[in-house]
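Dear U.,

Please find below the material for section 3 of the report. The protein was modelled together with adenosine-5'-triphosphate; I have listed the sequence and SMILES used, followed by the predicted complex structure.
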Amino acid sequence: MKAEARDLIAAMPLPAVLIRWDERIDAANSEAVALLGEGLEERHFITVLRQPVLLDAIEGTLRDGAPRKTRYLTSDGRQDTTFDVACRAVTLDRGPGVLLTFADVTQMEQAGQMRRDFVANVSHELRTPLTALLGFIETLRGPAREDAVARERFLEIMGNEAGRMERLVGDLLSLSRLEAEERVRPTEPVDLPELLRSVLSGLAPVAEEAGVALIPELPGDVLEIAGDADQLRQVVVNLVENAVKYSGRGAQVTLRLSEPAYHPRLRAEGVEIEVIDTGPGFDPLHIPRLTERFYRVDSHRSREMGGTGLGLAIVKHIVNRHRGRLRIESTPGKGSTFRVILPLRAAPPRGEDA
Ligand SMILES: Nc1ncnc2c1ncn2[C@@H]1O[C@H](COP(=O)(O)OP(=O)(O)OP(=O)(O)O)[C@@H](O)[C@H]1O
Ligand SMILES: [Mg+2]
């Protein structure tokens, strides 16, 4: 092949392979070598690209010159990857050829899959309380029509189920708002000890009812950080509520705020908010997935307690928006610690990078 054509293939930013009329590979760029392996030139394309749909497409284009599109599935060692492959006819010096280009569409596929999973999850989460409501309406119209005691009980359950649906919709809305503004870093001054104290007093009745002791370990002085007060309150409420909810009677939940210190992970000065419980804990294998929407360690227990499974997803988004970090540790039988590290200031001092 001519040198210019080889240069053109080499200059293409996508994996590209040129196949000749004699079904051998004429040229391949370094992206193609990374994808398909070394020593491609002069090999028969069947020995390199072993996937039947792709082979059919190449043969078809070699035969009739019509462009074709197909898929190539492979694995980069860590995850499955999907390529859209375009087969285009080209005219070479001594006959027809086919130019293959590979476009990595793995992320698009994943985003599509996530969207489908999300819709399926939301529908499922809404359907459960909805089915219960419809069932009770049916019962109230029929068998329980004249039974005042049953009616009261059913109405209470219906109230709970409707409340759960309302919370779910509210949480979904705040998640989508959070996603929309995640890039905008909040800057209002927030007095953290004050905020934490007010969360604790708000949750005191809940903790008391659950038989859980709330223990504050907060500095007495004002400690201001740049943030969004409502969102930070939401973070602490979600974490403390979880600790109270899942720890059970007799447990202790400590809410601790550290003094400001340099945090290497933030490369800046920051503070740590820790929510430490003496509850049942969970297997650390759950930790990487815990902040996914609707992920629950024990889904039966969470649903029973009216949980939507969105609490930690919301926490994660808010912490991200504040350019902070969320760290989770847990030991089965001992308890869990949820640690939020927040930078003290919104903007790094001049001369440092973000
Ligand atoms: N302190 C904790 N101890 C034990 N398990 C916990 C703790 N915090 C969270 N979990 C587990 O993590 C799961 C996810 O928590 P998350 O707050 O996201 O959802 P939820 O509490 O089920 O529902 P929501 O908070 O939306 O009402 C919980 O279902 C629970 O299994
Ligand atoms: Mg929760």
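For the text of the report, you could mention the following: The longest strand covers residues 80-92.

Regards,
Y.
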